[in-house]
Amino acid sequence: xxxxVRRTPRMLELAGAGAAALLTLSACSSSSGxxxxxxxxxxxxxxxxxxxxxxxxxxxxxxSFTALGKEFEQRHPGTKVTFSFGGSDTLAASITGGxxxxxxxxxxPKTMATVTDAKDAAGAPETFVRNQLEIATLxxxxxxxxxxxxxxxxxxxxxxxxxxxxxGAAAQKALDASHLKLTPISYEQDVKxxxxxxxxxxxxxxxxxxxxxxxxGDKVEGxxxxxxxxxxxxxxxxxxxxxxxxxxxKAFIALVRSAEGQKxxxxxxxxxx
Length: 273
Fold this sequence. Notes:
- The chain contains nine helices and ten strands.
- It is an alpha/beta fold.
- α5 links the parallel β6 (158-161) and β7 (186-188).
- The N and C termini lie far apart (92 Å).
């Protein structure tokens, strides 16, 4: 039989104090738990990248940007990257004319200036790669083209990019530096169109970028020329002011400029900025 314990006023006072302490600890624990829960909830609701990013990019970026677009979509499920490739001058005119786009990657600062001068860029463009010219000839080089001067041979069918296009402006700069005059059979609106003339055997040679010769594989043969060093193009990229998906667009630009992005571009033949 358990002996009864007589509770004195002092004992009751101590018991009451202990109960109050327990209630205080419980309240603190509850408050701490609520704070952590709120913090966790805040972290879990941080916005994730989603939606479509529309990128206007120079034609010479087609292969490398397409690969980077796929990589971006894999890293960020729920996103989609759509591209419009073409001559930088045409793309710039489309942007200033109101065409919806989030990112512009141009093949020269001059064509990017069309967009920035119109106040259609959000912030200053950044150069992410450079590109150098090369001569593309038919496989086996039957025209025996070994220099820029050889493109002036009578009867040789040569194609250039239009002078308003960065690759055409660079080619003209190289020709002027060499004091050479060349009359092509056609001026093309972008570098892929110029290269295509050689691939289809409609021309014997075209002045394009190293990256385009690289992408064409055995469809053409590349001929380097020293004058190309005087006409290297910087490629700037910029977020556009009216971007509908700015945060995701910024993330795509970050990928392009990252070490991973630079590796893809470098493997395509682009030079570091």
